[in-house]
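User: Hey, my collaborator sent me this sequence without any context and asked if I could get a structure. I don't really work with proteins. Can you help?
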Amino acid sequence: MTNDADRTNRFNQLAEAYSADLYRYAMWICGNDALAKDLVQETFLRAWRALDSLNDMKAAKGWLITILRREYARTFERKVPGFTDIEKVSIADEGELEPDDLKERDLLREGILKLEPKYRDPLLLQAIFGHSCEEISEQLGISKSAVMTQLFRAREKLKALLQKDGVTGNVHELF
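Assistant: No problem. I've predicted the 3D structure and written it out in structure-token form, which is a compact way to encode the shape of the chain:
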């Protein structure tokens, strides 16, 4: 009985601590609220099943992010995307953002999503989660110098995508 209670308590701590971060990361990689929520739910389901394999609670966030990334990859194996009639699509009100800010955000998001995963993942881990190069290297299983190279190249590729004429497209002074 104590083992089950400890396991449940340990899992609840993980869920409370990381659910918002996982959802934010899922939204960045898929861009769909419903799918992001499903990914987080599947991530926690897989984490519950494999909770005994997590020995170091300090590695929990990276472990959960890895599960989420793999779960997202699995969605392409088992689901065929449906098509939506463009006439039936309603555009949600974005609230407080001004039209220029919305456009910049959309351009930046589209640019990031066009990057290869090799470059996109380290950039998102740094920009969204605020991870250091060392933390990113641990999570992705690559060297710190490889992370720095990928981050540099990701920014250069994003700059090339956004600055088609070499001058415009300096979104939020990123470059």
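In plain terms: The mean pLDDT is 83. You can pass these tokens on to your collaborator as they are.
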